[in-house]
Amino acid sequence: MAINNNLPLLLLLSIIFLFLNRPVLGDTDEEDVLFTGINSYRTSQNLTTLNKNENAECLADEIAEQFKNRPCTNSTGSATVPGTEPQFADYPKILIKCHLNVSDTRDGSIMPACVPRLESSLVLTNFTKSQYSMSLNDSKFTGIGIGKENDWIVVVLTTNTPGGSYSTDMNTKDDDDHDDDDSSGLTFSIGLVNYLLVLIMSFCFFLC
After folding, report:
1. What is the pTM of this model?
2. How many degrees, rounded to 5, is the angle at CA 97 between CA 93 and CA 100?
3. Structural contact between residues 154 and 112, judged by C-beta atoms closer than 8 angstroms
4. pLDDT, tens digit, for every residue of 171-203?
5. Which helix (H) or strand (E) holds 79?
6. Residue 154, Cα to own-chain centre: how many angstroms?
7. Which residues pair with 107 in a beta bridge?
8. Which helix (H) or strand (E) holds 94?
9. Dihedral, 23, 28, 29, 32 alpha carbons, nearest 10
């Protein structure tokens, strides 16, 4: 009888258990949509597809962070007049944060675009039907990184040459790596605590 009486409680605990440990599902990923769209565009131009570059993605994220509070206008993003692109005083620090060296990035291309609500169809045309199309049509580019913040999305193109490879600069490795490790460990610990709490509570209700 004890088992039957406690069955609703066990069911409730099971639901809580599943809720606490469910995978986190994101919303529509504009970055993946743009990545697919750009590679489809490259294929239509008889060019090789671009491979994801982790360091370029980091740089794209950081550049998007710099832009995020700027409004979209007719002279920003893909409509920016060449030579008038905004400069960031802390750009060297951004490179260090992404474990990059300026000598490995000089041949790459950084392309920010501002699209209200990041509507996917407009995001793609901001790259394929603007001054950025010249870079997308350039066969020297082999890699890509994409980042977004608010209405801004940034594409960083890389090459397979030393001047644009965006390869990891070991001299810029810092405590960020340790922070990432600590974050992963904390996530694992929280998940383990959830498991143990539900297990203990279920066991206690089962015996009562």
Report:
1. 0.69
2. 90
3. yes
4. 766 545 444 444 444 444 445 555 566 566 655
5. none
6. 10
7. none
8. helix 91-97
9. 110
